[in-house]
User: What shape does this take?
Amino acid sequence: GLKVNACSLSQLEAFGAAFPGAEIGLRFNPGLGSGGTGKTNVGGPSSSFGIWHELLPEARCVLSHTGSHTTAFAW
Assistant: This one.
């Protein structure tokens, strides 16, 4: 089967609405990262990758509300 990772709360909400109870992976932005330029930065405040680490409680709330669950976290 297909494995899906959500990189934003809006993606998580949309997935949960479309596939209630399904499993989804979550990609988090840990607040720091690496990359030679702003275009290649994969973490930190200027990166668009992942759910900001401080939003973990909101992500859990969305999972609970939609009945979705996760067994995979990516940082």
The helical segments are 9-18, 56-66. Residues 56-66 form the longest helix (11 residues). The first strand starts at residue 5 and ends at 6. The chain has two helices and four strands.
